[in-house]
Write a structure and sequence with these properties.
heterodimer, A: 676 residues, two-stranded antiparallel sheet, 8 strands, globular, B: 315 residues, mainly alpha, 11 helices
């Protein structure tokens, strides 16, 4: 029994024990027990993942546990990466939950479900048969659904979010189910080994159908356009540590599914000839990235903004995955390894900063009771540690040095640029567009997080709740601190992670070698490229020290005086005169008017006596999700219509229902007679 | 990290810090003369800085540490770019940092921090400037990266030193369609990023039009001096980048006093000439409305895309 196997066993045991204990212990201990248990489950899972990335593996078959197919688990390096990420997020979220859940989030059921959710997420990347994967997938969906509904008694919107999530996650499951069933039907068995062997003899059409179905199912979990509609609803309404788990760990498994099926199961076929699959993945990714960040830039709800940013980041990851597939299918395995390494690194980075951001947003919500940026502001005075955490997370998310996303986006762009000379004409058009999409995403992300941090945490409070906000409990701060340290390590010495991730990507993409080497400096092996985030940060710090020294030496040695703000001589400025998140995003909204299609309503009430005098002006603005409106509303309306029509069939008469049964049997008999 | 690079790094930092206010002075003087004014002389920006540094430091009420660190960070980011980019010598002081993306991201980081400082004051002016600056930044970024893409495809690297060396080796490249298109796109980007006409007017204090000036309205004394210095350094760094990418001749490739001296002089002349051209152009252009700026940037983005296309199909 090696470390990987025992680690996985320990993780599942602790998880199950925690779930039982959460039901048994008295309410005042429940949050602490659940949080600590979840964190330990995550730690064991993360250790297993790291061991797997370093080369350990295990195989486990329990044929009796599930009827028909049995449970079959295999841990390989690719699964290990996702296991480690999930475990890491669970540690931070669990510790945070000790402080957070104490305030109403510690009902018996919810507390018991949290560790089960983490366990389900740990099972998915280890599953080695279609049956096991689908059971783990469904368990993950159900447990997360229960967690989303935690606060359904307190807010109306939670139920609606839950409905959207339940429907969409199950439609996704159906898509994955059908796709993998077709696959398994051709393979004559549901183990991944059988699928791999069958993929070589599959016709391109069937393989294409399977891939598109699987892409739709897994893509909906990853929040990819146009199946993202659940994400900005469900993530804000869940308790914040659950949001962190969903947004930083669960969505990754969608990417895992696409990589597993596309690169591993279809390894022989897909990477050989099917270029359009990966073009589709790349274009969907690019569209999701731009659309996601654009909606985030318009959003004034802090957690909704973060939810849309998840769509953006998963889009960037899929750009990497799609590029890797494109390069692999044109035979450039080394570059494919680099693109895949960039995608996997971005998964890890996103997990780090999104955990931090959601936990910080949870602290804000907890302290002020609102997620509306237009009602926040000035939190740096009452909540300095949370402010620092959100600022650090925002820097990481906006792809500026010395943040984490900067490194992975640099890698991604390097792969895209160097793919051009070897590409065909179609790829040569797609790659620059992808780079432009990544660049636009990066620019908009800067604007988005400057807005979120500047309006939410700096300036002056825009409401009493924001003015009274006080710092959160030590456990919550510890959870954020852990995520913050992880972000710092990922940002400054990404090579620690990259050496492992690069090797995994090399194995999966078929190049064999490591995509990136070096300790202080990232050195790309396939192409010429070096970057040192650590040296860059040190240079920046040194420059700041030099400037400070020169200013101290040259400037007048007088004490700093505090003065009034410039108010144009009109008296003291009030908080209502500040720029809000809405006004901050207004120029961007105008620029992207055609894409986001905002709705504005201006009601002018005139004075009774004269039309020239205005008594009141009312201004309302909404930025609806356009894709949702165009794509989902018609479908929902049609379902509603047919539901109404269908009602006429059920007037409540028992005789009629018996008649339906009778005629159905007759029709069935006729059909059987005719066809036999 | 070569000796040539280190020498270049030190020289560049000194030249950029000393020369940048002079560049601004030259540009103002050119504009003044063309507009029929006498002008304040090219030393005026330095005299302004001296005056500001001697004043007492003032912080507006209710601002945080971020507001006070921003000027330092702004000068530091631009300073690091001035050290690592090959302006005077063809090698870079810190090779692994002299990546075009890293340089662009560093400059963007300075801008983002300044926008945060603008928001931190909690005044309408600060928020307005920050909002506009971020909008422009978000739209400039795609053009910038696509132009970089076009320039680095043939070289096979995004490292600045590699690009400059390869252009020196094959000067005909500068006249290739890809390079020319990328140059035009990058010039538009430079105008937008340094806050010059027709995107932003550096000489205005009118709330309808200002972008950069609105963000820094609350700064005074030594803080303002640092911000002004950083703004002028940013201008020279962007012009220097244009010069190094498209007119790299005269840059020092060996470590001799003559080569280095020639490198410094040529760099100063190139940036001075580019600045003069920019100033002359400004005399004949009016500021466009903020909401027309995206059209300008979209045009430059298309040029960038065409440059990538040209580098692939015409290579």
């Amino acid at each position: 029994m090696n470390l990987a196997q025992s680690g996985f066993g320990v993780a599942l045991t602790i998880g199950a024990l925690t779930a039982v204990l959460a039901v048994a212990v008295p309410v005042r201990l429940r949050a602490a027990v659940t949080g600590a248990g979840t964190a330990l489950t995550g730690a064991a899972g993360a250790a297993t993942g790291v061991a797997a990335v370093l080369g350990q593996s295990f195989t486990l078959a329990l044929p009796g546990l599930l009827p028909l197919s049995g449970v079959s688990l295999v841990l390989d390096p690719l699964g290990g990466v996702f296991l480690a990420v999930t475990g890491g997020v669970a540690v931070a979220a669990g510790i945070y939950g000790i402080g957070y859940a104490r305030h109403g989030g510690d009902a018996r059921l919810v507390s018991a479900v949290l560790p089960l959710f983490v366990m389900a997420m740990l099972v998915v990347p280890v599953a080695a048969s279609v049956g096991t994967l689908l059971v783990g997938w469904e368990l993950m969906a159900l447990t997360s659904l229960l967690l989303v509904l935690t606060e359904h008694r307190r807010r109306e919107e939670v139920a609606e979010a839950g409905r959207w999530y339940a429907v969409m996650t199950h439609l996704g499951l159906v898509a994955v189910l059908i796709g993998l069933m077709i696959f398994a039907g051709h393979a004559g068995g549901d183990s991944f080994a059988a699928l791999r062997a069958a993929a070589r003899h599959m016709s391109p059409t069937v393989a294409g159908v399977v891939f598109v179905l699987v892409l739709a199912g897994f893509g909906s979990k990853a929040g990819i356009l146009p199946l993202h509609a659940w994400l900005p609803r469900a993530h804000p309404e869940a308790p914040s540590h659950v949001s962190a788990l969903m947004s930083a760990a669960m969505v990754n498994l969608g990417v895992y599914g696409i990589v597993r099926v596309g690169f591993d199961l279809f390894g022989g076929v897909a990477a050989g000839g099917t270029r359009w699959w990966w073009l589709l993945v790349l274009l969907l990714g690019a569209a999701s990235a731009v659309y996601g960040i654009l909606q985030a830039a318009m959003s004034t709800d802090l957690k909704r903004l973060l939810g849309y940013s998840t769509t953006e980041n998963m889009g960037l990851v899929l750009v990497g995955v799609g590029a890797a597939g494109l390069f692999a299918s044109s035979g450039n395995r080394a570059l494919a390894g680099l693109a895949l390494a960039a995608a996997l690194l971005h998964v890890i980075n996103h997990a780090g900063f999104k955990t931090l951001l959601f936990l910080a947003a949870g602290s804000v919500l907890h302290a002020t009771g609102t997620r509306d940026l237009d009602a926040l502001g000035g939190l740096r005075a009452g909540m300095p540690a949370t402010t620092a955490a959100f600022g650090w997370g925002g820097l990481a998310a906006s792809a500026l040095p010395p943040g984490t996303a900067f490194v992975s986006e640099w890698l991604l762009v390097q792969a895209l640029i160097h793919g051009l000379p070897t590409a065909g004409a179609a790829t040569a058009i797609v790659l620059p567009v992808a780079v432009a999409a990544v660049a636009l995403t990066a620019g908009l992300a800067v604007a988005t997080f400057v807005k979120a941090f500047g309006v939410g945490f700096l300036a002056r409070p825009r409401s009493d709740a924001a003015a009274r906000a006080s710092e959160s409990s030590p456990a919550m701060l510890a959870g954020m601190g852990l995520a913050g340290v992880a972000c710092a390590v990922l940002a400054l010495v990404p090579t620690v992670v990259l050496s492992g991730v690069g090797r995994v990507a090399g194995v999966v993409a078929g190049s064999g070698g490591r995509a990136v080497t070096g300790v202080v400096t990232l050195q790309l092996t396939a192409i010429a490229g070096t970057l040192s985030p650590l040296l860059l940060t040190l240079a920046l710090l040194a420059a700041m020290v030099v400037v400070l020294g020169v200013v101290r030496a040259v400037a007048a040695r007088r004490a700093r005086r505090v003065a009034r703000l410039w108010d144009c001589g009109a008296g003291p400025l009030s908080a209502r005169m500040e720029y809000t998140a809405t006004s901050f995003a207004e120029p961007l909204q105008r620029v992207f008017d055609d894409v986001v299609a905002p709705e504005t309503d201006v009601d002018v009430t005139h004075h009774e006596e004269s039309r020239y005098l205005v008594a009141a002006v009312e201004y309302r603005r909404r930025v609806p999700d356009r894709i949702e409106r165009r794509l989902y509303q018609p479908v929902l309306a049609a379902i509603g219509f047919w539901g109404q029509v269908g009602r006429r069939l059920a007037p409540g008469s028992v005789h009629r229902y018996l008649g339906y049964g009778f005629y159905a049997v007759i029709v069935l008999l006729i059909v059987l007679t005719v066809t036999r | 990290m070569s000796l040539l690079g280190v020498a270049g790094g030190v020289l560049q930092a000194v030249v950029v810090v000393i020369g940048s206010p002079l560049l601004v002075g030259i540009m103002r003087q050119v504009r003044a003369r063309l507009e029929g004014r006498a002008g304040a002389g090219i030393g005026q920006p330095w005299r302004d800085l001296r005056k500001l540094v001697r004043k007492e430091p003032v912080s507006p009420r209710g601002t945080s540490e971020l507001f006070r660190i921003t000027p330092l960070l702004l000068v530091a980011t631009t300073g690091v770019v001035a050290v690592v980019t090959p302006f005077v010598t063809a090698a870079s002081a810190i090779g692994p940092v002299a990546d075009l993306f890293a340089v662009v991201a560093l400059l963007a980081m300075g801008t983002a921090t300044l926008a945060l400082a603008g928001l931190d004051t909690g005044t309408a002016f600060g928020g307005m400037g920050a909002s506009r600056e971020m909008t422009i930044l978000a739209l400039v970024e795609p053009t910038l990266l696509v132009s970089i893409f076009a320039l680095s495809v043939r070289v096979g690297s995004t490292n600045l030193a590699a690009i400059v060396t390869s252009t020196l080796r094959d000067p005909a490249r500068v006249l290739s369609p890809a390079s020319l298109l990328a140059a035009v796109a990058l010039i538009v980007v430079t105008v937008a990023e340094t806050g010059r006409l027709p995107v932003d007017n550096p000489a205005t204090h009118l709330e309808l039009t200002m972008v950069h000036e609105a963000m820094i309205l609350e700064y005074a004394g030594p803080d303002l001096a640092l911000i002004e210095l950083a703004a002028s350094m940013r201008l020279s760094v962007f012009l220097g980048l244009l010069a190094s990418l498209f007119l790299p001749w005269g840059i020092a490739t060996s470590l001799g006093p003559v080569a280095l001296a020639v490198g410094v002089v040529v760099f100063a002349v190139k940036v001075g000439l580019l600045g003069t051209v920019l100033a002359v152009g400004e005399v004949f252009t009016a500021k466009v409305r903020l909401f027309r700026v995206p059209e300008l940037l979209a045009g430059s983005f298309v040029l960038g895309l065409l440059a990538v296309g040209a580098s692939f199909f015409l290579a």
